[in-house]
Automatic annotation (TrEMBL), chain A:
Protein name: ABC transporter permease
Main localization, broad class: membrane
Domain ABC3 transporter permease C-terminal: 298-411, 689-796
PANTHER family, per the entry: ABC-TYPE MACROLIDE FAMILY EXPORT SYSTEM PERMEASE COMPONENT 2 (PTHR30572:SF18), MEMBRANE COMPONENT OF TRANSPORTER-RELATED (PTHR30572)
Organism: Niastella soli
Membrane found in the keyword field: yes
Automatic annotation (TrEMBL), chain B:
Organism: Niastella soli
Residues annotated as domain ABC transporter: 2-225
Listed GO MF terms: ATP binding
UniProt xrefs under CDD domains: ABC_MJ0796_LolCDE_FtsE
UniProt keyword list: ATP-binding, Nucleotide-binding, Transport
Superkingdom field: Bacteria
Cross-referenced Pfam families: ABC_tran (PF00005)
UniProt-recorded name of the protein: ABC transporter ATP-binding protein
Length: 806, 225
């Protein structure tokens, strides 16, 4: 029986080449899209499960709750906490601290900038990072030992077997030799713990800052800590044990306060976060919001749905032609059940064929998708065994989604009615029309959203942020004798043609550069965060920021390095509640409420140092007396930067031969703030493009069917004097109506969604009606063009032929 | 009104070449009622389609009201057709999706008649064909005879000078057939030229003249008295 069904199904597919082509191609594209997003989702949810002891590894987080604060956690770890846990809790098998830091490495006379992570010795007992060379038991025993990833080994030495070789590392002023004791396999893409070079924590144990933090239970130095519990331990859920532990080391936090301030109301606790929870828990800093994944899956599902709808509508549209076959089958005794099986066999066959091509298409598109999603995914059934089941489920689902409605409708035909031609499902029943409308609602909605996201990105990129970010080069001088290099370098390049200015700061600018700040009291006594920018005297003028009151720093005045600050407008407004002129000479109140160390000498116009989601926060600039700039800024003359960069590079090589010349353009650093938005616009854009393409593909098939089903009518109309325009209009009209309805539905939905999305941006565009009008016009034009191809073909056919074939 | 000379129509398919019309020559005067008869496949419908400007001949001359139309393009033919010629088919060829009224109205829409005038004109014709009471019905809800009356109404609604009927009674029983023939005769008496293809000697007797065809040629003409 199944063989019979499949045989007929194959024949039907082969007979209707155009329709089958549209169906298979459309479904393949849909499945390709969906499987890519599926892979992405599976990957995101698979983080950290490759550790063989993943169910016993926990990260120590600090949880804040109460007061006016949203409950949330931070993954910073205080240096002495992890060892104390190991000491106090018998269930803790190992405690591992991880401290990352930037460094410069020298290998075979070449220099690179990279990062090094220092870890406690038991690292490899806890985490599963197999060594290709070396021994996990001894790899981190000596303070000057180093484990390196295969990738970095190849980059530095050109070979992976580098155990025993020496690598020189500089984190301070001088290079220190390390011996490579192990080479790990490359870190899996779905690992939260990542490293390039892994050193022993012992190596930094005597570092003054680490020692200081080891004694101060409130000091954070950018460290994370993990514990591995013994099998059977339930410590992670026994919160009161952990609370008692904290009470022991932080007794002051538990003493009742007389006049508690807002900050005092925040209750702090330690928690143990399962390692597999890290990547997808948005309540702890750095975790991702699974909501985004569901949005992606929904978008991909929409694309797939559009492809499935094509199958359904085309199958129904074709039913007019198949009515006779069904009538005959029924007359010779076929039961409804068998007919349903017949139609489902067809859709399943189609689903399987499409899945096969779809997966091929998916793997072809994977590199592009990786670029869009900023991931390094691969279709690996061994790494993601659940993919097999998900894909099989997908095939079944697609077969059912696409085939069940036609199967039910067509099998319900009554033979007599078929003969009397009373059944009219010829591609225009209400169900089909709703489905086509739905397809265009989704496509138009996605396209409108894309356009609005793109507009917002363009707006943020081009908005005047109060600083001239064009033609500005930022050079990284971290770990290379900051104090010494800057004056030398500045002097060497300053007076060259094409160099308009040179300045420096202890802070970078743009995405991924971090901020420094402290709390200050406002005029009402409330504590407010203020961003502090340590820069050189000429920082503001070189950056192209303007003053609205007061003066710039003056190198001739000694007092300008001992407490003079230039503040921004936001600080004047929020902390002082006064005018810029009146602010001059005012002294800032520090967190303890004391005056006297910082006096305002100027007020600068606001400058958006963060992304445009944020309002400009209070900020001030100062010139530290012990200035240690980590970034040099060079303003270039507009025009081709090539020759100027060459000069910067050449000068660098001469002055600092043992450090790489690393620069970036500040405008690009600012653009990087919007990587996420750009990614979303790419994804929505692709999805929108693909879905409107699929929807039009379906429309093309439907129009072809409509033309076939209406051949006779068209013939008659032509005999009666209808012109080509009349006939083409007649066929297109119905479809244009559907798209207009779709547009009417999509517009408010898209507006609402995008309006909501834009609320996250302090600086945002207004949604204009033009976006909707243009998108609507585009969709309708595209649909008309698609349908016209078929309509015109039908309209210019000789009516005599149409009437002959009765 | 119609003067064709040495008209040829040849259908070529991959294997065979069918000469549907073989140098045929015919004259039809204004006001005449002509019947065309002949065995199946002799080219009657082909001739009618060419006379109706639905198809073009491969060779020969075709004067319609003294204008040479043999080499007219599709647009010109359509224009001439919709103002001058009405069609009645064996299988009625009504549009299933439209009501009786809308079917009859269609030719008026295509010739650009205003909606108010259309309504008057359609009602007039439906009245004449005694089908007014069915104006809002769909074709499937009518009997064959009623459907053919609607088709005739549609053919004459534009007041064409020429009506071409291809076996108009072919799908009807004799009483319905006679009714349609009476309608055509009435129209002819009011001045419309009619050319009708038929297999029925009985129907042919309503005409003034019978043209007998064989293998794409005329073989005999009988004048009816
Ligand atoms: N489109 C076509 N392609 C090929 N051959 C055709 C075509 N139309 C008609 N013919 C052939 O031309 C010849 C004349 O056909 P036509 O339809 O004019 O015959 P007829 O006299 O109307 O026959 P009937 O009485 O059966 O209606 C036939 O042999 C037919 O097969
Ligand atoms: Mg015929």
């Amino acid at each position: 029986m199944l063989k019979h069904y499949l045989k007929i199904a194959f024949r039907n597919l082969a007979q209707q080449k155009v329709l089958s082509g549209i169906n298979i191609f459309g479904l393949s594209v849909g499945i390709a899209c969906f499987s890519l997003f599926l892979l992405y989702a599976v990957h995101e949810f698979s983080y950290d499960r490759f550790h063989t002891k993943a169910d016993r590894i926990y990260r120590i987080v600090e949880w804040w709750e109460g007061g006016e604060r949203e409950p949330g956690g931070y993954a910073w770890a205080y240096t002495p906490v992890a060892p104390a846990m190991k000491r106090d809790f018998p269930d803790v098998e190992y405690a591992i601290r991880l401290k990352g830091s930037d460094c410069i490495v020298k290998a075979a006379d070449k220099v690179f900038r990279t990062s090094i992570t220092y870890a406690d010795t038991a690292f490899f007992h806890v985490f599963t990072f197999p060594l290709i060379y070396g021994n996990t038991n001894t790899a981190l025993q000596q303070p000057n030992q180093l484990v390196i990833t295969q990738e970095k080994a190849l980059q530095y030495f050109g070979t992976a077997n580098v155990v025993g070789k020496t690598l020189e590392l500089k984190t301070d002023s001088a290079f220190v030799p390390f011996t490579i004791s192990g080479v790990t396999e490359n870190i899996p893409a779905n690992s939260s713990v990542k490293f390039n070079l892994l050193g022993s924590f012992e190596h930094i144990a005597n570092d003054p800052m680490v020692q200081q933090s080891n004694m101060n239970w409130y000091m954070t130095i950018g460290m994370q800590a993990f514990v591995q519990l013994k099998p059977g331990s339930r410590l992670a859920s026994e919160q009161n044990r952990i609370n008692l532990f904290r009470r022991k080391y932080y007794p002051d936090d538990y003493k009742p306060k007389k006049n508690p301030t807002k900050e005092d109301l925040i209750q702090t606790s330690f928690r143990l976060q399962p390692i597999r929870d890290i990547h997808m828990n948005p309540t702890i800093e750095g975790g991702n919001d699974p909501k985004n994944i569901w949005i992606l899956i929904t978008i991909a599902g929409a694309v797939l749905l559009i492809a499935c709808i094509n199958f359904t509508t085309l199958a129904i549209g074709r039913s007019a032609g198949r009515a006779k076959e069904i009538g005959v089958r029924k007359v010779i005794g076929s039961q409804r059940k068998q007919l349903i099986s017949q139609f489902l066999a067809e859709s399943f066959l189609l689903s399987v064929l499409s899945a096969a091509t779809g997966l091929m298409l998916g793997s072809l598109l994977l590199p592009l998708f990786n670029q869009l999603a900023d991931r390094k995914l691969s279709f690996s059934f061994s790494r993601f065994p659940e993919l097999i089941w998900l894909l099989i489920g997908l095939i079944v689902l697609v077969g059912f989604l696409a085939g069940s409605y036609p199967a039910l409708v067509l099998s319900a035909f009554k033979p007599i009615e078929v003969l009397k031609k009373k059944v009219r499902v010829g591609g225009s029943n209400l169900f089909t029309r709703s489905l086509v409308t739905l397809q265009f609602v989704l496509s138009i909605g996605l396209i409108i959203s894309t356009v609005i996201i793109l507009q917002q990105i363009a707006f943020m990129r081009t908005k005047n942020i109060g600083l001239n970010k064009e033609n500005l080069v930022m050079i990284n001088t971290e770990h290379i004798g900051n104090k010494r290099i800057y004056p030398l370098y500045k002097q060497a390049i300053e007076n060259n043609a094409g160099i308009l200015g040179v300045t420096a700061s202890e802070m970078g600018l743009g995405a991924g550069e971090g901020l420094m700040g402290a709390g200050y009291r406002d005029f009402k006594g409330e504590l407010k965060g203020v961003i502090e920018y340590p820069g050189d005297y000429n920082y503001l003028n070189t950056m192209g920021m303007s003053l609205i009151a007061g003066r710039y720093f003056n190198p001739a005045l000694a007092s300008d390095t001992t407490g003079a600050v230039i503040v921004n407008e936001a600080l004047v407004q929020e902390l002082l509640g006064t005018t810029p002129e009146k602010a001059l000479g005012t002294q800032l109140l520090n967190a303890k409420g004391n005056r006297g160390t910082k006096t305002i000498i100027g007020v600068a116009r606001n400058f958006n140092f963060e992304d445009l989601k944020q309002k400009v926060r209070p900020q001030f600039y100062y010139r530290p007396s012990a200035f240690q700039p980590s970034r040099i800024f060079v303003r270039l003359q507009a025009g081709d930067p090539g020759s100027k960069l060459a000069l910067l590079n050449k000068t660098w090589k001469k002055l600092v031969p043992d450090a790489p010349f690393e620069y970036s353009f500040v405008d690009e650093k600012f653009d990087n703030f919007y990587k996420n938005e750009t990614r979303w616009s790419n994804i929505a854009g692709w999805a929108g493009g693909i879905s409107i393409f699929l929807a039009c593909l379906g429309l093309f098939g439907l129009a072809a069917l409509a033309a076939v089903n209406r051949t006779k009518e068209i013939g008659i109309r032509k005999v009666l004097g209808a012109t080509v325009t009349h006939v083409a209009g007649l066929l297109s009209k119905d479809f244009v109506k559907l798209i207009t309805v779709a547009f009417a539905i999509a517009t408010p939905l898209a507006w609402y969604m995008m309006h909501y999305w834009l609320q996250a941006y302090a600086w945002r565009i207004n949604i204009t009606w033009q976006v909707f009008a243009l998108t609507g016009a585009f969709a309708i034009l595209l649909a008309v063009a698609t349908v016209s191809v078929q309509a015109i073909k039908a309209a210019i056919a000789n009516p005599v032929k149409a009437l002959r074939n009765e | 009104m119609i003067k064709i000379r040495n008209l040829e129509k040849i259908y070529r398919t991959e294997e065979v070449e069918t000469v549907a019309l073989n140098k045929i020559s015919i004259d039809v005067k204004e006001g005449e009622f002509v019947a065309i008869m002949g065995p199946s496949g002799c080219g009657k419908s082909t001739l009618l389609n060419i006379l109706g400007l639905l198809d073009d001949p491969d060779n020969g001359s075709f004067l319609f009201n003294n204008i040479e139309v043999a080499n007219f393009n599709e647009r010109k033919r359509a224009d001439l057709r919709k103002h001058n010629i009405g069609f009645v088919f064996q299988s009625f060829n009504l549009i299933d999706e439209l009501t009786v009224f809308e079917n009859v109205e269609l030719p008026l829409i295509y010739t650009g008649v205003k909606s108010g005038d259309r309504k008057k004109r359609v009602e007039e014709v439906l009245d004449k064909m005694q089908i007014m009471h069915r104006r809002n019905h769909y074709p499937q809800q009518l009997s064959g005879g009623q459907q053919q009356r609607v088709a005739v109404a549609r053919a004459v609604v534009n007041n064409p000078k020429l009506i071409l009927a291809d076996e108009p009674t072919g799908n009807l029983d004799s009483s319905n057939g006679n009714e349609v023939m009476t309608l055509l005769t009435d129209l002819n008496e009011q001045g419309t030229t009619i050319i009708m293809v038929t297999h029925s000697e009985h129907d042919a007797r309503y005409s003034h003249r019978i043209i007998r065809m064989l293998d794409g040629q005329t073989v005999l003409e009988n004048i009816m008295v």
